[in-house]
Specification:
CATH class of one domain: Alpha Beta
Distance between the termini: 98 Å
Order of helices and strands: EHHHEEEEHHHEE
Oligomer: single chain
Structural class: alpha+beta
CATH architecture of one domain: Alpha-Beta Complex
Amino acid sequence: MKIVAKLNYFRISPRKARLVADCIRGMDAEKAEIQLRFLNKKAAGPVLKLLKSSIANAQNNFGVEKEDLFISEIQVNEGPVLKRWRARAMGRAASIMKRTSHIIITLDTKKKVEVKKKEEKKPEVVKLDTLDALKDKEKPEEKIKEEKGSQVEKPEMVQPPRPYDATSKSKKKFWSRQTFGNIKKAFRRKSF
């Protein structure tokens, strides 16, 4: 039985991630977890998280114990490359390739283990008599509305006072200035 977990678009180059993947390839799940915990590489943290996820998938979905699992396959594939530019001498531009990687971990069992699948809950079948009975019953909310009446009084909304509007006052000042014929005086000077 194979249990698969994937990590897509991991922002590290595949070449660096493969160094970590090669360390744990073919190991038991428990030993690989310990190895990744103490490995001094940037990719070790996310790969450890991915390994824990695949172990959890095996335990929850198939009922397989952690001791029975080993890493049968681990792949680090290249993802899309983000292309950026950096300024260099004499007006040139040098490209920067920000690589991503896709990591796939496949766990397998050491010995043949019986799969304990969860029992699927069957939906409850409702008889027609009970449906009619449910329609006839009135909900308590409807009874309360009938007792109080159909109209419910709502409190009136009181609007808060408007804030002081400085723009309207400044417009009044501008237009109330002295006018000379059709031309309005826009600047205040000491002398005319």
